[in-house]
Amino acid sequence: MIDYLPTGKSIGAMQASLQWILTHTFRFIGAVMITLGEGEGFILIKKGKAEAYYYQHGSKVLRGKAAYDYFSTQDLLTFRLQKYNAEEYRKAFAFYNGEQGSELTPASLDADIPAISVKPSPEPPRSVAQAVEQTVHSMEPAVNQDHESGPAAEEPHDVVPDVRKILQSAEDSLDLSPSISEMTGKPESGDGTAPPGDDVGEIRTPEETADRQSSGAPGLSGQQAKPDEGDATAGAGEEPVTGVRQSPPATAPGAPPVAVDERDDTPETAAPPPGPHAITVEDSEIADLGWILRRNGVLAASVFSDGFSVVALGDADFEAVAAIAEDALRAAESIAAALDMGTFLQMTVQMQGKNVIIAPYRDAHICFLTSPKTHLGQIRGILQELSLRNPTQAL
Amino acid sequence: MLKQILHKFLNLEGVVAACVVGDEGSILTTAGQKFPDFEEVGLRVYLGMRASKALAEELDRDELTMIFLEIEDGTLLATPLDNDHILAIIAKNNTNIGRIRYELKKNRDAITTAL
User: Fold this and answer.
1) Nearest residue in chain B measured CA to CA from A337
2) Half-sphere exposure (CA, 13 Å, Cβ side) for A236?
3) Where are the beta strands (DSSP E) in A47-149?
4) CA A360/CA A338 separation, integer angstroms
5) Contacts of B65 in chain A (CB under 8 A)
6) CA distance linking residue A61 with residue A182, whole number of Å
7) Is the torsion defined by CA of A256, A257, A258, A262 positive or negative?
8) A380/B70 touch (CB, cutoff 8 Å), yes or no
9) Domain residue spans of chain B
């Protein structure tokens, strides 16, 4: 399956924990291609939201929560970041859903996936929030039914978070102010990086399916005529969750649809403003950090500026380290000035358990941690090679 | 006694000065080249050591062993002797750093005793 994913644009390879990946991809759209043991997998991430987890080792395949759980057990994941444009992401996500729900071929994904038509309901909702709440109530029994009857029920599966996750995605796409928890009175799943209940593609209402089939709407349901024999939860003609996510149904006759049209070509400006630590760095900086991280003995690396970590890779909390490193850096620069022996090149702080190296990098500074066995010659070599990668920098 | 030990470092190729920095960055004793602003160097080494200790504390409460500073035309090595004193060695570029580190470790106790 992985071979069929869009190639996208490779922006580097590195190592980090799953938690780090999920909390440092605010603006990333694409696939995190993971190599783990003799298997490989991926996570599809769209602006901080991990929307699909997949791992395959030989004939064994883990999806959704199972893959998430497996990735979570690893201290470090070796991965490549493949940046997607909207179309590539749409294809990758559709293929992920199609692969689990039917025998989609990559070629079939070239067709557009239309949003589900809106199904009327007896009482018009007064607000979007109410509509979403109605959707929660209407979906839960159906989902539970799926959960109990299908083979997927063998896996741990908390359906309510799944529903909430779908709705949360819809809510995010519209920037609706009331949260799901406010609407349903149920606790939210957390920080947006919570594990998936399972593959979202398994959640759909029978009404939607019937409506979809009877309307003869084109799209995946029409294309995936052959049900996947290995997955009873995905029947023939059923709509993968991409449709559900694109348009949570409004239930009011004649009422304007509660259109949650999560188009992938949403302009960048529509994205929520990045948090204080959102990645807004150049791809090449990430690539450089990834390169450093692959050097023998390097544990973690960060680019920092004015005491704040701009981007970091590896297993270290650079938020706190960057502020202190800035103090050490200023002292080092003033030592160089006081000695009148030229400009500051680099500082290595040796400890019992590790080394910390601080050096100028472009218009900021770089800080990386190495094991104590990494000697000064290796560190100098890393910095020299880094300067060759960045000829204009003052290393 | 302390000065004699510091002079041992000057015998190493490339080493131009050695000094012991005391509490709050004051220079206790020096050997070798007299830098015009040695007091400033002492203060900055003290501040650098303090920041580095904080860095070590932040990183798993590790113990700081040495600071190595590479400058365009020189190198500075600094190591804490005890809670209040720092030994700093200033050398030219292309000095055998490993040799200086070896001598630092070898003479650390003697310097501490002489303080």
Assistant:
1) B41
2) 4
3) 49-57, 60-63, 77-83
4) 18
5) 350-352
6) 37
7) negative
8) yes
9) 2-114
Residue A16 has pLDDT above 60, yes or no: yes
Q: What is the pLDDT of residues A270-301, one digit of tens each?
A: 344 433 333 344 677 888 888 898 888 999 99
- Min distance B93 CA to chain A CA atoms (Å): 10
Tell me how far CA of residue A17 lies from CA of A24, A70, A157, in angstroms: 11, 12, 24
Give the 3-state secondary structure of residue A176.
coil
3-state secondary structure string across A309-339: EEEEEECCCHHHHHHHHHHHHHHHHHHHHHH
CA distance A318 to A304: 9
Distance from CA of B23 to the nearest CA of A (A): 16
**For residue range A39-52, what is the model confidence (pLDDT) as tens digits?**
899 999 987 788 89
Residue of chain B with shortest Cα separation from A323 = B55
* Phi, psi values for residue A177, rounded to 5°: -75, -45
Please name which of A229, A61, A196, A204 lies closest in space to residue A146, comparing C-alpha atoms. A204
Parallel, antiparallel, or unpaired: how do β-strands B64-71 and B27-32 relate? unpaired
pLDDT of residue A359: 94
pLDDT of residue A61: 85
Give B41's contacts in chain A (Cβ within 8 Å).
335, 338-339
CA distance B106 to chain A (A): 17
- Does B16 contact chain A (CB < 8 Å)? no
pLDDT in tens, A336-376: 999 989 999 999 999 999 999 999 998 899 999 999 988 88
Whether residue A352 and residue B36 make contact (CB cut-off 8 A), yes or no, is no
Q: Which amino acid is at A107?
A: A
Q: Answer whether B29's CB lies under 8 Å from B54's CB.
A: no
Amino acid at A164: R
| ipTM of this complex | 0.94
Class of domain B2-114: alpha beta
From A328, A335, A353, residue closest to B55, measured CB to CB: A328
Q: What is the pTM of this model?
A: 0.49
Residues of A in contact with B73 (CB under 8 A): 341-342
Tens digits of residue pLDDT in B58-108 = 888 888 999 999 999 999 999 999 888 999 999 998 888 889 999 988 888
